[in-house]
Structure formats: C-alpha cells, structure tokens
Amino acid sequence: MNMQQAIKMTAAETALVDAYTAQIGDLPGDGAVLSLRDTLVHELRTTGLPTRRIESWHYTDLRTLLRAVPAADPSAFAERVEAVVPGSSVLAVRSGQANLKSLPKGVTARSYTESLLDGSAVAGLAVLGSDDAIGRINGGLVRGGLEIEIAEGAELEAPLEIQAVQSHGQAHTRFPVSFGAGSKATVIERHLSTNAEGSFVSSVSDVTLAEGADVIWIILQQQGSADTHLGQIRFDLGKNAKLHLFIINAGGKLVRQEIHGKTSGEGADLTLRGINLLGGESHTDVTFTLGHDVPHTTSTEIIRNVVFDRAKGVFQGKILVAKDAQKTDAKMSCNTLLLSDDADFSSKPELEIFADDVQCGHGATVTDIDHTQLFYMLARGIPEKKARAMLVNAFVAEIVEELEDDEELVEALEGLISAWLEKHA
Amino acid sequence: MLEIKNLHARIAEDGTEIIRGLNLTVKAGEVAAIMGPNGSGKSTLSYVLSGREDYEVTEGDILYNGESILELDASERAAKGIFLAFQYPVEIPGVATMQFLKVAMNEQRKYRGEDELTTPEFMRLVKEAAGDLKIAPEMLRRPLNVGFSGGEKKRAEILQMALLQPKLCVLDETDSGLDIDALKVVADGVNALRSPDRAVVVITHYQRLLDYIVPDTVHVLYKGQVIKSGDKTLAHELEAKGYADLIEAAA
C-alpha cells in the first residue's frame, strides 16, 4: 500500500480505505479481481469522494454529506423478513452473504462471492466512468451478492424477492441478473436495515434483458433513518425487451440511487417510475441516464416526490439519443409535492439528441396540495388531515396502479406507501 | 333549518365583496330555489354555506338548526348534514370512487359518534343507490370523477348525496351540462330525498330544472342580495320576462 496521498482525506474517506485495508486477505477474489480492487481503492484515496464540482454529483456533495462510515463488522447479521408480496420466492443476502434456498423453476443462482473467487466477476467490476463513485466503492469492498439467471422462455409465476438485510456496519453487494430471451419475471430488489444504528450500504445490480424479455424490476429502499445507501442499477435492453423499472425510496438518511441504462436492440422499451417519500433530515438523490442507442426504441420516465420536514431530494435525468437512433420516443417528467416550507427538491432533466427524427420531451412541476381537491373532500365530511393524506397518497398511487396486472403487487406497494405516509404526515 | 341573516361575504384573496346583506330562511321540508343572473353571487353563496376558505364572512350570520356554523370548517359542516352538490365536480386521480365514498361515509359517522359501516353494509348501500341512479358498477371502479362525462359527474354527486343522507342539500347549477334524460334521472334522485326533515336549496340559472324539482319557494338573487321572493310562479314569470324588470324595480 505504497500510495501517493493526493488529498487530505475526510473521516469517511479514511474509514472506507481503512475498511479495505482491514479486510485485505479476507476480501474474496482471484488475482485479477484483487488487483482491480486495489486500483479502485487507490483511486478513491487519491481523488476522494465526489464533490459538487463533479457535474453528476452537483446536488449531492458526497464528500461533505457523508460525515462518517461505520466499521465493517462481519457479524452484522440480520434475520430475513417477510416478503413484500406474499408467496414470493425470497433470495436473502444477509450482511452481504448470500443464502440460497430452493429456487423456482427456470431460475439458477449462485453466490456472487464465487464469481469473485473464480474471477468471472472482473469485467462487471469496472467503473462506468471517472465519476462512478458508487461503482468504485462497491468494487473495492464487495463481498457478496447473487448472480442470477432466468432461463430462456421462463415465466415466473411469483415475484422473486432479493433481500439485502443489514443490522449495522457495512454491506457491499452485487446482483448481476440476466433474463433469457422471451422470459417474463417480476423481481423485487429490497434493501432494508433492521435497526437504527446507522449502516453504510453500497449495492450494484447489473441487469441484462435478452430479446423479448419482459421484466418488472422493483427497487425498494427501506433503510433506517441513520443509514447511508448508495445504490446503482445498470441495464441493457435487447431487441423488443421490455423493462418496467420501479424505484421506491422510503428510508435512509443519505441516499443516492443511480440508474444507468441503454437500449441496444430495436423495439426495446423502458418504463421508469420512481417514488421518493422523503422526510426528516434526509437527503435522497435519484440520478438516471439512458442511452437510446439504436433506432425505434421507447422510454417513459415518471418520478413523483413527496417531501416533508427538512428533507431534500434530487432528480437528475439525462436521456441521450444516439445519431442513428431515429424514431426514438422518450418522455420524462418529474412531479413534486412540497409539504413543508423547509422541504427542498431539485430537478434537472436533460436531453441530448443527436438524431433528427425523434420525439422527446420532459417536464417538471413543483406544487402544494390542490386546494380545489382538498375543499371537495372536506365538503364530503373528510377531516382535513385525512383528506391531505389521501391526496398525497393519490399523487403517488397513480403510478403504482400502472402495475395493475399484478393486483397483489399493487396492494403490497400501496400498503407500504400509505404506512410510510401515516408515519410521516 | 337554515337562517341567513344580513350576510356579507368577500373573496379572501382580494377583498371583493360578493354577498352584500343577504337574508334567507329555509324551513325543514322546504325546497327553495335561488335564481339570478350571472355574477349575482349564487355560487359564492353555495361556497360560503359549505365553508370554503377562499371566502370570508365579514358581517351577519348563518344559522343551521338554530346554531351559527361560521366557526365550523367545511368537513364539520358536512358531518353535521350540509351537502353541496358541485357545479363542477372535482376530478381526483388516484382516489378510487368506492374508497372515497366509504371514507366520507365513515368519517361523517365517526364525527357524529356512530359506528362505522362494515364493508358488506357499505357495499349494499352503494349498490342500491347506484342502481336507482343508473350508475354502472364500472364507473365506481374508476378514480373519482376522472373520465366521467358531464352527466356521470352530476349523477355521482347525487349518489354521494343519497349515501350521505344530508339534512340540508345545496345544489349548485346541477342542471348545467345535462341533457334532458340525465336531468330527469338527477331530478328523480333529488325528489327521492325530499322529506319533512330535510331542506333543499336549488341554485339555478334556468327555470328548466324547476319543472322537475318543483320548489316551494323561489328567491331572486342580485348583487349579493335577495331582491324578491315568491312561490313557484315567480320562476315562470322570470322565464317569460327575464330579470330586467325585477332588477329595475329593485334599483
């Protein structure tokens, strides 16, 4: 570890580098993986965590916001919890260790630790760019996760719930998941902590959809009010593949959820929906980039934010349409309900279009509760507090109901959202 | 049942006075029609009665069953039995019609210290009332008023009224945007609710609705005051002659 120190490290940066140093010899990986880890941690040490001067981190100055990182504790074990949707197949990763139970037909899985040990994980461990702090931290420290394959043509009857449960300390997980041609599945990627001690979590999912795959992927972030959660999902959509990606942030103190995807086959379609339920003193950032790389691909993005207390939220959405990607159709919107004077939300939609025959648009709104709707409900005898809660709920429920084909899923997500709102409103 | 005394009310935001010394008494069992030209304060009156915060009362009082309601908010007035059928029912995406009905009914019951309805009881009541008003079950599965036609919205208002069983019903231009068949259905719904312990205030621009909901009294509103009261023949007079003569006489 004879490295040049370019910056004066913050407490959090020191803690991350220390976590790596303390685990040398213990972190899984073959020669190539270990060497890459070394490079990633070296970069972290020399460039530090990103600040507002890095464009993609402008609204989330991680170096300032991340004050402390708890030490890694291999015993930070947490019990698995009930699945969100009854009857789901649960694959639990507890404190970064995969626990494989009986798998549904058409699904194969192995511990990601094995992919690290045999070196097959090395290509996926590369960072997406110099500003990929999440990829860097995760690549340096990842211990486990799951590598999952959905067979060609497989249609899963019940959702597959990937549970990452953490009680304290750190967890760094990866989930490479590939969906075979024509497969159909619902996956719930769920992050939660079981107590309020304040853990530090990074997680990267790497999802590929082969031709005609039809996937609903739900990220449910339910960390504790003292936790830091750095999440990333990367996806690649093949020909005629359909991904309905739904992200719900309902927890955490400092949260960054990145979504980086591309459509690489004609006819590919992305539906991105996000619900950010923000309260307390939390800071939550959803950053999205999508490359429409080939002609005739479509995407719609709707982000709905509900902000209480002194919470801060960020949505950055960037859609890039490549020169050859004619007939791209993309629509992005970000709507925010600000429910306190101290609540704050920044929205930055961007379109970069290099093709000349496309339909792309974006819009952003920030509002308070609609007073005409509120009066209508009061005039029917619904007390103001209840009426407000219903309207806030309605604001986000609208996009949950788009999943109407799966009633149990809609019911579960709606229940979770109203429980959060009841606690915070 | 309803006694409005020298009421003055203005738009809270800019202070424009709309109701200027209005007096009106409506007894239990009575159907009172409020007529008047555009801008006379008809809709404002309905909002002031139901407690919309965009308006403030600067003088006078509104007594409901002998008690002033000025200090009660809109939800309390509703729970006490005052119902406003909106001229433009509000669309609320994301709130299912059935859920809305159930919450409204049960919140009113809670306010009055009554037991909440069980789901089967609720379902039975809705099914009955919806059938009477020719409301299809599909409509009730949609979000509240979203994608409803003009007629469907008005029927949904009357459905809410039938389910909530208010004591004082205020119908604000319920006839606007209705074809004759829809008008009959709505009027039948209102007539079914007429009873000796219930009063209905029908606010309307035209005589047409009053052929179907026959009023006991007719009051002409102009510049925020009642300038003439009479029985149902007054409505026919207005239809024939217009408001001009009355306004001249009052000036």
SSE arrangement:
The complex is a heterodimer of chains A (425) and B (251).
Chain A: H1 11-23, H2 31-47, H3 62-65, E1 89-94, E2 97-99, E3 107-111, H4 112-117, H5 133-141, E4 144-150, E5 160-166, E6 170-179, E7 184-193, E8 200-209, E9 214-222, E10 228-237, E11 242-249, E12 254-263, E13 269-278, E14 283-292, E15 298-307, E16 312-321, E17 329-338, E18 344-353, E19 359-367, H6 371-378, H7 384-400, H8 407-424
Parallel strand pairs in A: 1-5, 4-6, 5-7, 6-8, 7-9, 8-10, 9-11, 10-12, 11-13, 12-14, 13-15, 14-16, 15-17, 16-18, 17-19
Antiparallel strand pairs in A: 1-2, 3-4
Chain B: E1 2-11, E2 17-26, E3 31-35, H1 42-50, E4 55-64, E5 67-68, H2 74-79, E6 82-85, E7 92-96, H3 97-111, H4 119-132, H5 137-141, E8 143-144, H6 150-164, E9 168-172, H7 180-193, E10 199-204, E11 217-222, E12 225-230, H8 232-241, H9 244-250
Parallel strand pairs in B: 3-10, 3-11, 6-9, 9-10
Antiparallel strand pairs in B: 1-2, 1-4, 4-5, 7-8, 11-12
Helix pairs in contact in B: 6-7
Pfam families (chain B): ABC_tran (PF00005)
InterPro entries (chain B): AAA+_ATPase, ABC_transporter-like_ATP-bd, ABC_transporter-like_CS, FeS-cluster_ATPase_SufC, P-loop_NTPase
Family (chain B): Belongs to the ABC transporter superfamily. Ycf16 family.
